[in-house]
């Protein structure tokens, strides 16, 4: 039997060549963030810190008009009555029984959005006047014409 000389040593170019088993699943604990779910960077009423909630509740009440709101996406924007940039509105911060629609007059308080606290978010949003001539939907799905 003839023995052939070993091939020249070269650096590995693939994971399997260095002894890593690429076919075996990694052992990890189950996580709710698995798959395509991306955590929202926006603070909802549920994830907002207690101190941010207290600061917002002690702040002044502003007036504005609902610019747009998408129930399926869970957010929208408010145009402030005193002008300025539009304010973000999350579904968890809407008080009352109606889903806001374009043209509704609202009152709200403001809270900064982390991590840089450069932008503002409307909290404790209350619809004060329903936009005339529009159909409003309650959170339970009942449609009311105004």
Automatic annotation (TrEMBL):
<dbReference type="InterPro" id="IPR019844">
    <property type="entry name" value="CSD_CS"/>
</dbReference>
<feature type="compositionally biased region" description="Pro residues">
    <location>
        <begin position="1"/>
        <end position="11"/>
    </location>
</feature>
<dbReference type="InterPro" id="IPR012340">
    <property type="entry name" value="NA-bd_OB-fold"/>
</dbReference>
<feature type="region of interest" description="Disordered">
    <location>
        <begin position="1"/>
        <end position="46"/>
    </location>
</feature>
<dbReference type="InterPro" id="IPR002059">
    <property type="entry name" value="CSP_DNA-bd"/>
</dbReference>
<dbReference type="GO" id="GO:0043488">
    <property type="term" value="P:regulation of mRNA stability"/>
</dbReference>
<dbReference type="Pfam" id="PF00313">
    <property type="entry name" value="CSD"/>
</dbReference>
<dbReference type="GO" id="GO:0043186">
    <property type="term" value="C:P granule"/>
</dbReference>
<dbReference type="GO" id="GO:0005829">
    <property type="term" value="C:cytosol"/>
</dbReference>
<dbReference type="InterPro" id="IPR011129">
    <property type="entry name" value="CSD"/>
</dbReference>
<keyword id="KW-0597">Phosphoprotein</keyword>
<dbReference type="GO" id="GO:0003730">
    <property type="term" value="F:mRNA 3'-UTR binding"/>
</dbReference>
<dbReference type="InterPro" id="IPR052069">
    <property type="entry name" value="Ca-reg_mRNA-binding_domain"/>
</dbReference>
<dbReference type="GO" id="GO:0005737">
    <property type="term" value="C:cytoplasm"/>
</dbReference>
<dbReference type="GO" id="GO:0000177">
    <property type="term" value="C:cytoplasmic exosome (RNase complex)"/>
</dbReference>
<protein>
    <submittedName>
        <fullName>Calcium regulated heat stable protein 1</fullName>
    </submittedName>
</protein>
């Amino acid at each position: 039997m003839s023995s052939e000389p070993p091939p020249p040593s070269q650096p590995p170019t693939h994971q399997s060549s260095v002894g890593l088993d690429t076919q075996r699943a990694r052992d990890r604990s189950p996580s709710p963030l698995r798959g395509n779910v991306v955590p929202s960077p926006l603070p909802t009423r549920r994830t907002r810190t207690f101190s941010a909630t207290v600061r917002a509740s002690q702040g002044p009440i502003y007036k504005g008009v609902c610019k747009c709101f998408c129930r399926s996406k869970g957010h929208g924007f408010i145009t402030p009555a005193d002008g300025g940039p539009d304010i973000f509105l999350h579904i968890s911060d809407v008080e009352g029984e109606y889903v806001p629609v374009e043209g509704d007059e609202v009152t709200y308080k403001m809270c900064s959005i982390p991590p840089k606290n450069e932008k503002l978010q409307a909290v404790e949003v209350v619809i004060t006047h329903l936009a005339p001539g529009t159909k409003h939907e309650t959170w339970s799905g009942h449609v009311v014409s105004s």
